[in-house]
Amino acid sequence: MTAIGLLQMPRPQDSAPDLDASAGELMRWAPTQGGVLVSSMVDTASAAGAAAKPVDPHLTMGSETCIKCHANEVKVWKATPHHRTFDELHRRPAAKEIASKLGVRSIKYDGRCVDCHYTQKVDLASGNVHAIEGVSCESCHGSAKQWLDLHHDYGGEQVTRAMETPEHRQQRLAQSVAAGMRNPVNVYLVAQSCLRCHTTADEELVNVGGHPTGSLDFEFVSWSQGTIRHNFIDSDGQSNDQNTRDRLRVMFVSGMIADLEASLRATAEATQKAKFGVTAAKRADRAAKRLLSVSQKVDSKQIENVLMVYSGVTLKLNNREQLIQAADAIADIGFRFAAETNGHVLEPLDAFIPPANRWK
User: Fold this and answer.
1) Sorting pLDDT into bands at 50, 70 and 90, what band is 236?
2) What pTM did the predictor assign?
3) Which InterPro entries does UniProt cross-reference here (predicted)?
4) Mean pLDDT of all residues belonging to the chain
5) What value does the mean pLDDT take over residues 184-198?
6) Pick from 242, 267, 273, 266: which is nearest to 354 by CA?
7) For position 290, what pLDDT does the model report?
8) Is the pLDDT of residue 153 over 50?
9) Which of 35-39, 84-88, 248-252 has the lowest average pLDDT?
């Protein structure tokens, strides 16, 4: 793999970053040879593997709709920074400074701020769009209007979730995902939602406004399994359970793939060699090297395919078409990885998955 333009340095040929920097283990790796045509590997038009998108205010339902069936999940959410954003973000000095540099009058109404920090909804009476919540249910799981009825249809009016047949459940989940739900039945969809905002893909916002380039220390397991975890589904709403070891393994790798996808999307927006573009390119390269380390510990065709896609791109300015095409392909592969991988085969990665005492 080569990186030129934004990364004015050769990639090291004999070492890759740790999967877990605190573990102190350097893992040997060999560069992937040659590139491949993205279209020869995956169907980039797959709706299931599409990029995560901001909430559409015309399709927003609001958390008051979710609470009818997910009261405990909403209770957890209300104790998180995601919920507090609505009341706190616009008052922070750093946010005001960024807004001033960009000429933004209202953080709650400016699209570039709202896309990640707020949930907007159209008022049916006036037609006006206004912020109703901070980072909400629909920020992560998708605007609900088009999938809500599918989501809670268990096979008929008198059929409860406990009565639903396995066949109907599989069909219901597939239909809701196709309708736009980012359902955690596939953890890659959730990882995409996280990385869409924990990676800043706005050049002016960073280079002019001084906004951070994203959460450079983001790691999917540790950032999703602590304060914000709301996994009540297996206990029928009774307890906020930890995920199984197999699922955590799939999440660990899915987060790396989503990190690479999001970083390529950010790099695609770079038009000048400055903080935004250089940081995005370095982050993409770091994610790819971590996946290369993973590929030497476990056998996964999907990870190999991700690395082959990456080997065919150049991290340079004004290269949007190629980088977005690669990101779309990686999104599709990531979805398939999460859907098809049995976590048991990822057991060699256990030493690198953050333990519970490191979950945020």
Assistant:
1) confident
2) 0.88
3) Cyt_c-552/4, Multihaem_cyt_sf
4) 88
5) 97
6) 242
7) 98
8) yes
9) 35-39
Amino acid in the structure at residue 308? M
Alpha carbon of 326 to those of 44, 252, 331: distances in Å?
A: 9, 21, 9
Q: At what angle do helices 245-267 and 320-340 cross, to 10 degrees?
A: 170
Tokens of 322: 């190629």
* Structure tokens, 279: 């940081």
